[in-house]
């Protein structure tokens, strides 16, 4: 019997494909984040939410341990190849979000894959990022209502991108990708 803790080549290749596609999206989000921060900073949480996508797609499709973290790291490397100046940000974000997604999946011993689990994960990731941003950004420059919306969008962003990731994962599963990648 094969060792279940080993990750097959097809799983790694699937993680790589997802990582490349989502890494390009992350680099794009990074490219527009400066403009969003300068022109409409209240929307920054929606842009930053794209960083949950690699782990959501990988976990929804493959439903195995470590795929979120592996896919996040590959996405970070791809985004860093496009925007080398931000390698630290991309790798740090990959470790933070991918690690949180793995921990949340591990609490159910990688046996629960219902959509609510992914959305719970998104809310937790969003809350962690919102707290970090609260201390890192000077949001006191905003009116109180804008502060509330600004922080709330750091939770709404990952939730919205999780819905996108679940749609992508479902489409890939229906296309038969998961059958070839599970072993």
From TrEMBL:
Membrane-crossing ranges are 36-58, 65-83, 89-106, 118-136, 148-172
Supply the InterPro entries for this chain: ABC_thiamin-permease_prd
Q: Give the UniProt keywords, A-Z.
A: Membrane, Transmembrane, Transmembrane helix
Pfam families attached here?
A: ABC_cobalt
Keyword Membrane tagged: yes
Name of the protein described by the UniProt record: Acyl esterase
Top-down, what is the taxonomic lineage of the species of origin? Bacteria, Bacillati, Actinomycetota, Actinomycetes, Micrococcales
